[in-house]
Amino acid sequence: MAKKVLTHNLSEPLQGAQAATYDIRTGTGNLTINRLASSDGLLASGELEYLEKQNQPTCIVEARSGKAALTLKADGGRQPGFRLPWAACNGETNWMIHLNPDVATDLTAYTGGGNLQINLADMVITRVLADSGGGNLDMTLPDGATDLNVTARTGGGRVTIELGNGMTGHHILAARSGAGNVVVRLPAGVAALIHASTGMGKLIVDSKFTQIDKGTYQSADYQNATDRIEIDASSGAGSVSILTK
Fold first, then answer.
1. Measured on CA atoms in the order 148, 39, 117, 141, is the torsion positive or negative?
2. What is the value of pTM for the model shown?
3. For the chain, what are the domain ranges?
4. Shortest CA distance to 32 belongs to which of 130, 153, 174, 102?
5. Are 79 and 113 in contact (CB under 8 A)?
6. In angstroms, what is the C-alpha Rg of the chain?
7. How confident is the model over 170-183, as pLDDT tens digits?
8. Which of 146, 153, 163, 211 would suit a FRET pair with 75, their CA atoms being 20 to 30 Å apart?
9. CA distances in angstroms from 3 to 49, 149, 205, 208, listed in the order given
10. If you write DSSP's letter for every residue of 70-138 in order, what string do you get?
């Protein structure tokens, strides 16, 4: 007998926040995060599914002195049946969450086995930690970002990261999969230091970057560049590709 899926509607007021820390944990569900269509008056909104035998997702909000902390957590649940981690994954439930684009955002997003789709275009982002136990992970980062610190990892699915144009400052990006393919797409002309490795797959690095050591590549202007990025990309069994747009 199919399990009944219920929905909890999320709507959290802004309360004057100019910066926010989000900690979002879906259990084994799929998670999609993007921006609010309108930033007026809300910190976050969304639709959070849960199974009828579970409690509603836990939502805790703390706000003080222009800073907010929002924690969302699912009440357990597991995906039925056995599935290899690198096979196409799909969680039991779906969470769709929209964040205020004008708030400086520190984001942690976790799912135990579902897919993660994170589109942060046109948002103010400082840090991202995205983690899936075995699902696919797709992330788009904003144009004009400053000093980003991003980690994207999954136990078995693919990881795809697209960086925005006009990055300033020093950026750090780690993209890892236990078994799936990893693809990082960079803006043309960005200064980069790249550490890339794969246990069994193919390694593809854009020819604009010069190999300086085993698994290490660098743009000619990296050492003296004010605006630059350091990338650590790896997969246990899939291919790793570092490409320019």
1. negative
2. 0.92
3. 1-140, 141-245
4. 130
5. yes
6. 19
7. 999 999 999 999 99
8. 153
9. 12, 39, 45, 52
10. EEEE-------S---TTS----SSEEEEEE-TTSEEEEEEEESSS-EEEE-TTS-EEEEEEEESSS-EE
